[in-house]
Structures are given as structure tokens and as C-alpha cells.
């Protein structure tokens, strides 16, 4: 606890530096835009900004990216309530009760519920991060290559178990990502792999290009399938409305706390992110409420449950990334990639070697959440106006930004071509339920995973048993096997139960 | 949908085979210090080929749903976005970013967006200029340039 406190004090010294405060404000603005615009998601937005962080100090750069990340969770709810269109996937559940509230003229109340929930979860989440960070990092100090490999297996296994697509497709997507990660120069043997004899592929596939293509361009192809109908219900938050509304909302204090805890712990699991958390929190709130049948007609608890949980999950998702180097969602994976680009190694040593980076980030999240809630309240009319700009004007500009983002990483036009190809791939994958997250994870983590595997095998002189004889690694490996098998077991259980039922009904 | 599943699984399978062909240059076996360079690509590709073969078989065996992979209406929408983008990427090679972006934005806002000429003009001229000031001057990120910029002395 003492370590947390002393670290945090040092962190605030970093966070309150004038340039970092400005950067936090800038990040919050950008994050809010990204959260609102369809076709520009958090993963894509963060990826676009990474090339621009080259000239920033890493601790300032991560403050910027993190600000974009959690600010997008504040604004996603705005469009859900006013337009019935989720700006981000995790805001879908907010439309269930948020938009009906707007139709009933209670849009201001819904917005206040959203922002208060996000702020509550944001602050409590960062407090939990502050407290849990040193113990978890100390635990991770005992990790060697076998443990790292095993924990990455577990991360992929979680993706397989929790993903919507079939396990086969998850594995296939991950394998494609790993294969793409091996293209280029092999650092261990010095040989060139999979370059098809070209010089351009010597560099390998950068994950930035892949993310911008898969999530940015691919997303816009997908949304091009249908024309977006905007039904706009105007609403704004007036400062004098806030105190009485907050008093009214405090009746639902239990929903705030429950959603925060639920969201935070779901956020820790790779593959279960803000989207899962917000939907689960909504279902739990509905089931535990005294009037479940009213959910969907404009019950404020529904709005509180979703928006609190998604912010909590987003905050919790950072814990494994900082302490273990394990991404929990695509956006977090991109931030992890940013760490690699800036020359930092995530994991327990990061806190010891660069406390300014880690604690500066955490401290900036306290101030950033406050900045975000103020900008959110003030900015509702502005953001609503932006949504009413015709999509055909916004889309080419967003595409141009994607092109710049793909080009700027390596000054290579070929990367832009790859971006286009990844865009087509992302579109096809989304249509056929091939999950994208494993591909991104594998692309970013591929090198590290392979190195961990090779080092482990060198340590054990070729024996695979090392993953099962070391206790921590063994637990992770066994858990991975279970998670991989879970979907198959669930399907079997379902079929067995159906067979039982039909047999029983025949007996009658 | 079923046919599309099988086609895509087949494409990935063929891609895996092509990667397999490329790995023949590398040694696949186990060296003195653990796996050789080609070890992982080889087994990853074998795994991928196996997965896609299973996906293919799974798709072939499921009784087909009748929903199409993509309706003609939806596909038209996607083409309206993807073809101009492909053109833009080609323009990047030919005339550089700024001229290319101007043509792309002008084309898209006029033809696909059907906006009025003042709006189209403002976007076509304004956006590249703003991007120039933002990226070239302020953030110092150079963007590809073509012969027109060279003639103007940039």
C-alpha cells in the first residue's frame, strides 16, 4: 500500500506538468470525437496517433493514448442516447434505455446518468489499479520465459472461449497473425523469413498498418453496406440540473458499485472487454431489479449499469497490460504496441525502471477523468452537431487520415497498399465471423511469444515438459487447455441436455 | 453464406500452402540451440492448413442457410467506398498525396455524396491545405509528393 501511495505521489508530479495536462485535454477531445464517429473506433484512432507520438516523451505519449482510450468511453453513450446509434460497440446496451429516455424528454437525465456513471467507474477503477498494481507486479517478477509463454497461451485461450466465432476460426485467425508476425528478419538466426525474395517485406508487417486496415478501413467498408438513418432527439445537460438529478440518481448507488466491480473484473480478462462488461452488467441489473419488465422502456438503472461497467472494464483492462504485458482488447493491444515502439518493455520491471511512466499514467487518469466529465457535459451540443454532418463528407477525410497513418509509420507507400488489403480482409472476416482480436494479438505479440517459447526450450534443452513442471506455468497451461476446450464441452453439454429432454418427453 | 465460408476457407488454405512453399528455403528442423528459423513458420502453416481444412469440411456439412453472403444492395455500398479508395491509393503513386487527396475527396463528395459545388470545392481545396499545414508544417510528417509539388518547389 505504501508503495502505491509513494508511486502515485511521484506520478502526480509527472501528470501535473503543464505539457502533460495539455496533452491530457487534447487526448480527451480526440477520444470524444472518436467515440462519437462511426467508422472511427478507439483501436483505429489510437493506432493513427502512434506515429505522431514519436517526438513525445513516452510518459507523455501514453498519457495521450490513454486519454483517448477512456474518453471514448464517455462519449459513446452520447450518440446512443440522442441518436439510437452506438458510437462504439460497448455503447449498444445504452441505446436500450437511453434512447427511450430521450424520447420521453428525459435525455438530460440520461446524459447525467451516463457521465456520472463513467466518472464513478473511472475514479474507482483507477483507485483499484493504484492498489493492485504493485502486488501484481511483484508476483510477475517470478515469471520467466515459460511463465510468459504459458500466460500468453492463456490469453489466446480466453479469446477462444469468450469469442463469438467458432474456436477453429479463433485459432485460424491467431495463426494467420503469428505467420504474418514471422515475416521479415529473424533476430535469432539472422535469416530472412517469408519475404518471397522482395526487399520490401524485409521489414515485416507492422501492426499499425494491420490495425488501421482491419479496424479502420474494414469498419468503414462494413458500415458502407447500409445507409445510416439519423433520428436526432435534442437534449443537453444544464449545469443547474445536475445537483437535483444526482440526488435522484444516488438512490441507485448499488447499481453504480455493482457495475463498477463487475466491469473491472471482466475487463481483466483478455477477450472480455467493455462490450461484454456493459451487456452483462445490464442483464444483471435487470435480473436483480424490482421491476425487470420495465427495462427497455427508459429505466435509468439500465443506463447507469452499462456506462459504469464499460468504463470500469476499460480501466481494469490496463492492469494486465502494464504488469504482465498482456493485452486484453484490441485497443489495449495497440497501446502495448506503442510501448514496444517507444522502446519500453512491459512487465514488472517497467514499474521499477520507469516509475515516472507507469505512475504518471495512473495519476493522469485521475485528472483525465475529471477533465473528461467536464468536457463531456459542455460538449454535448457540439458532438451532436458533428454527428449531423453528412457521413459522405466525413468518410473521405477519415480515409485520408488512415492513409496518412499507414504511411507515416515507415514512410512507405507499400504500407498503404497493405492497409487496403487488410481492409478487405477485415471486411471479409467480419462478415464471416472470423474474430479480429486474435489476429491483432498474434501480430503484436508474435515476436515475444516465439522468443519466450524458444528461450524456454533452450532452458529445458528441448523438452516441452518445462511448461508443466514449473508450478505457475503449469497452472496457466492447464487453464489454457480448459478454456480452449470449453466451447466444445458446452456444445456437447447442450446436445446431451437436448437428447435427455427428448427422451423424457417420449417416455410420457 | 455456406459457399462463401467454403471459398474463404479455401483461399486461406491456398495461401497457407504458398507460405509453405516459401519456407522451403529455411531449415525446418531442430538445431543445436533449439528450433531453427523455419521451424515455427512451418508448423504454424501446417496448423493453419489443418484449421482451414476443418472449417471447410464443417461448412460443407452444415445444412445451408439461405441468407446470401452479401446482398447486391449492400455490395454496391461497399464498392462505392472501396473502389474510390483503391483509386486514391493508385493516385498516391502517380501524383502524390495532396493532389491525390484533392481528387479523391472531390470525386467522392460530388459523385457519391452528391453535394453542391460550393461544399465540394471547399472540401477539395480545404482538406489538403489543412492537412499540409497540420502534418508537414506543424508535426513535421512528410507525405508523398508527386511531380506537381516538385514543379512548385516543395
Set down the secondary structure blueprint.
The complex is a heterodimer of chains A (508) and B (154).
Chain A: H1 2-15, H2 18-36, H3 42-49, H4 58-83, H5 92-103, H6 107-140, H7 145-162, H8 167-182, E1 184-185, E2 192-193, H9 207-223, H10 242-249, H11 253-267, H12 274-288, H13 300-316, H14 318-324, H15 330-341, H16 348-353, H17 355-387, H18 391-408, H19 413-431, H20 437-459, H21 466-469, H22 471-507
Antiparallel strand pairs in A: 1-2
Helix pairs in contact in A: 1-6, 1-17, 2-4, 2-17, 3-4, 3-9, 3-15, 3-18, 4-5, 4-6, 4-13, 4-15, 4-17, 5-6, 5-13, 6-10, 6-11, 6-13, 6-14, 6-17, 7-8, 7-20, 7-22, 8-20, 9-18, 9-19, 11-12, 11-13, 12-13, 15-20, 18-19
Chain B: H1 2-22, E1 30-31, E2 34-35, H2 39-61, H3 72-95, H4 97-112, H5 117-138, H6 147-152
Antiparallel strand pairs in B: 1-2
Structure description:
The complex is a heterodimer of chains A (about 500) and B (about 150). Chain A is mostly helical and about 500 residues long. Chain A has one domain. Chain A has helices at about 1-15, 20-35, 40-50, 60-85, 90-105, 105-140, 145-160, 165-180, 205-225, 240-250, 255-265, 275-290, 300-315, 320-325, 330-340, 350-355, 355-385, 390-410, 415-430, 435-460, 465-470, 470-505; strands at about 185, 190-195. In chain A, strands 1-2 form a two-stranded antiparallel sheet. In chain A, α4 (about 60-85) packs parallel to α17 and α6 (about 105-140) packs parallel to α13. With about 150 residues, chain B is mainly α. Chain B has two domains: about 1-60; about 70-150, no CATH class. Chain B has a two-stranded antiparallel sheet with strand order 1-2. In chain B, β1 and β2 form a beta hairpin. In chain B, α1 (about 1-20) packs antiparallel against α2 (about 40-60) and α3 runs antiparallel to α4 (about 95-110). The mean pLDDT of chain B is about 80.
Amino acid at each position: 500500500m505504501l508503495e502505491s501511495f509513494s508511486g502515485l505521489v511521484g506520478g502526480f508530479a509527472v501528470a501535473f506538468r503543464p505539457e502533460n495536462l495539455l496533452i491530457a485535454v487534447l487526448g480527451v477531445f480526440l477520444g470524444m470525437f472518436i467515440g462519437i464517429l462511426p467508422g472511427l473506433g478507439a483501436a483505429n484512432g489510437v493506432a493513427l496517433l502512434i506515429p505522431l507520438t514519436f517526438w513525445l516523451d513516452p510518459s507523455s505519449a501514453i498519457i495521450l493514448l490513454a486519454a483517448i482510450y477512456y474518453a471514448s468511453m464517455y462519449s459513446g453513450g452520447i450518440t446512443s442516447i440522442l441518436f439510437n446509434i452506438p458510437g462504439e460497440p460497448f455503447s449498444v446496451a445504452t441505446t436500450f434505455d437511453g434512447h427511450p429516455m430521450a424520447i420521453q424528454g428525459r435525455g438530460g437525465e440520461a446524459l447525467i446518468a451516463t457521465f456520472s456513471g463513467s466518472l464513478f467507474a473511472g475514479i474507482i477503477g483507477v483507485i483499484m489499479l493504484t492498489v493492485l498494481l504493485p502486488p501484481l507486479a511483484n508476483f510477475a517478477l517470478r515469471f520467466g520465459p515459460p511463465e510468459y509463454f504459458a500466460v500468453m497461451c492463456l490469453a489466446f485461450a480466453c479469446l477462444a472461449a469468450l469469442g463469438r466465432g467458432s474456436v477453429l476460426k479463433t485459432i485460424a485467425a491467431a495463426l494467420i497473425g503469428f505467420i504474418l508476425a514471422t515475416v521479415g528478419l529473424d533476430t535469432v538466426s539472422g535469416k530472412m523469413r517469408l519475404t518471397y525474395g522482395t526487399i520490401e517485406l524485409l521489414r515485416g508487417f507492422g501492426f499499425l498498418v494491420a490495425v488501421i486496415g482491419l479496424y479502420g478501413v474494414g469498419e468503414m467498408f462494413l458500415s458502407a453496406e447500409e445507409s445510416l438513418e439519423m433520428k436526432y432527439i435534442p437534449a443537453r445537460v444544464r449545469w443547474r440540473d445536475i445537483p437535483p438529478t444526482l440526488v435522484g440518481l444516488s438512490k441507485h448507488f448499488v447499481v453504480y458499485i455493482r457495475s463498477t466491480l463487475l466491469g473491472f473484473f471482466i475487463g481483466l480478462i483478455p477477450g472480455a472487454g467493455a462490450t461484454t462488461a456493459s451487456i452483462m452488467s445490464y442483464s444483471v441489473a435487470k435480473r436483480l431489479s424490482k421491476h425487470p419488465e420495465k427495462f427497455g422502456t427508459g429505466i435509468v438503472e439500465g443506463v447507469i449499469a452499462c456506462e459504469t461497467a464499460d468504463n470500469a472494464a476499460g480501466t481494469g483492462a490496463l492492469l494486465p497490460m502494464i504488469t504482465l504485458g498482456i493485452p486484453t482488447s484490441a485497443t489495449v493491444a495497440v497501446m502495448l504496441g506503442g510501448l514496444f515502439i517507444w522502446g519500453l518493455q512491459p512487465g514488472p520491471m517497467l514499474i521499477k525502471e520507469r516509475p515516472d511512466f507507469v505512475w504518471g499514467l495512473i495519476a493522469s487518469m485521475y485528472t483525465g477523468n475529471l477533465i473528461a466529465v467536464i468536457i463531456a457535459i459542455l460538449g454535448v451540443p457540439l458532438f451532436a452537431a458533428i454527428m449531423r454532418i453528412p457521413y459522405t463528407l466525413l468518410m473521405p477525410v477519415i480515409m485520408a487520415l488512415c492513409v496518412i497513418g499507414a504511411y507515416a509509420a515507415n514512410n512507405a507507400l507499400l504500407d498503404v497498399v497493405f492497409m487496403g488489403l487488410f481492409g478487405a480482409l477485415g471486411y471479409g472476416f467480419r462478415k464471416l465471423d472470423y474474430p479480429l482480436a486474435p489476429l491483432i494479438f498474434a501480430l503484436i505479440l508474435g515476436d515475444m511469444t516465439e522468443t519466450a517459447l524458444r528461450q524456454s526450450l533452450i532452458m529445458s534443452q528441448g523438452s516441452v515438459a518445462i511448461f508443466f513442471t514449473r508450478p505457475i506455468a503449469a497452472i496457466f497451461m492447464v487453464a489454457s487447455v480448459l478454456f480452449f476446450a470449453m466451447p466444445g464441452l458446452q456444445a456437447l453439454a447442450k446436445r446431451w441436455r437436448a437428447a435427455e429432454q427428448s427422451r423424457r418427453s417420449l417416455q410420457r | 453464406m455456406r459457399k462463401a465460408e467454403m471459398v474463404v476457407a479455401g483461399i486461406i488454405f491456398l495461401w497457407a500452402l504458398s507460405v509453405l512453399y516459401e519456407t522451403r528455403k529455411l531449415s525446418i528442423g531442430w538445431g543445436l540451440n533449439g528450433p531453427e528459423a523455419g521451424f515455427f513458420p512451418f508448423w504454424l502453416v501446417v496448423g493453419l492448413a489443418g484449421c482451414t481444412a476443418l472449417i471447410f469440411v464443417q461448412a460443407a456439412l452444415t445444412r445451408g442457410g439461405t441468407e446470401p453472403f452479401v446482398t447486391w444492395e449492400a455490395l454496391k455500398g461497399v464498392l462505392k467506398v472501396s473502389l474510390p479508395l483503391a483509386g486514391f491509393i493508385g493516385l498516391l503513386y502517380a501524383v502524390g498525396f495532396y493532389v491525390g487527396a484533392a481528387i479523391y475527396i472531390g470525386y467522392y463528395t460530388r459523385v457519391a455524396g452528391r453535394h453542391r459545388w460550393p461544399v465540394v470545392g471547399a472540401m477539395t481545396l480545404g482538406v489538403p491545405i489543412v492537412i499540409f499545414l497540420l502534418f508537414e508544417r506543424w508535426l513535421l510528417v512528410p507525405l508523398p509528393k508527386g511531380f506537381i509539388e516538385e514543379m512548385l518547389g516543395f
